[in-house]
Design goal:
Helix 6 crosses helix 7 (211-224). The protein has 9 helices and 11 strands. With 273 residues, the chain is of the alpha/beta class.
């Protein structure tokens, strides 16, 4: 197995699995599937659009939204453009949010329409980009998509890729930067376990602002060409009533022990394994 040196190996290989489903998302009404080709196209065009809109190498771009294919595309596009993605908890209070934005000074903030007003008040100097708006809205992420708009930077192992924040339970949230090398080591370790096969589906119930689901639940499956299954928050408790809502049996669940207990409680089984 080749050892990754930076996340370019993940980002540039998305098209290798072009026709395979990358993200299967359960919506309030129905479902949505993005293939690896869909994801790769969006990531490339958004990365070029971000560069064109002023995201320089090392600039930060925050994401505060629920899991979804647009969240994944935005995160990967920021990294591909040479920026640093800052995943944030949607439940952060105003005081913590102001602290995080003041500390990370993002150039862009990806969020949703129901959070936009609050974000504008807390991140005065950032450009707000909406992940759930149509292309008729000038703030829509789709308005940033560009084709062939200049070259993307070549990234090195020591370039920063992400900036995660602690929960702030013992004080103000603290930023923890991770380099491309840091992420690559974790991806390599996940691949070395041999726990999955190329036909597996991986259920991703944990919010992506945590480093564990970001790496083990998102980057590693993308590297292996797996399909991620994303339950929407409102649907997680309803899966017991509609067990046929997933595309096929889910072979792996990306969750910490507390997350597994949560899933067991929600399903009524109490099973933690």
């Amino acid at each position: 197995m080749a050892t990754l040196q930076n996340c370019d190996g993940v980002l540039n290989d998305l098209s290798r699995n072009a026709d395979r489903p990358a993200v299967f998302t359960l919506r309030k009404r129905g479902s949505e599937t993005w293939s690896y080709a869909d994801l790769d196209g969006c990531v490339d065009r958004l990365a070029r659009g971000l560069r064109h809109a002023g995201l320089a190498r090392g600039d930060r771009a925050a994401i505060i939204a629920d899991n979804g294919p647009e969240w994944i595309a935005a995160a990967l596009a920021v990294i591909r453009a040479g920026g640093v993605v800052v995943p944030l908890d949607v439940q952060l209070g105003e005081k913590a949010l102001r602290h995080v934005f003041g500390d990370s000074t993002p150039r862009f903030v990806f969020t949703t329409k129901n959070r936009a007003e609050r974000i504008v008040a807390c991140a005065e100097n950032a450009r707000i980009v909406l992940l759930d708006a149509t292309d008729q809205d000038e703030r829509s992420w789709r308005r940033l998509l560009l084709k062939n708009a200049g070259a993307l930077p070549k990234l090195g192992p020591e370039d920063h890729a992400t900036l995660f924040y602690t929960s702030g339970t013992t004080g103000p949230p603290k930023g923890v930067p991770l380099t491309h090398s840091n992420l690559s080591v974790q991806i390599d370790a996940a691949l070395a376990t041999g726990l999955t096969s190329e036909d597996d589906h991986l259920l991703l119930p944990l919010p992506l602002h945590h480093v564990y689901p970001f790496v083990i639940g998102m980057l590693a499956p993308l590297t292996m060409g797996l399909t991620m299954v994303i339950p929407q928050p409102a649907l997680r408790s309803a899966r017991r009533q509609n067990p046929a809502s997933t595309p096929s049996p889910t072979a792996r669940v990306s969750a910490a022990p507390a997350g597994l207990r949560w899933c067991g409680a929600r399903s009524g089984t109490g099973d933690e394994t």
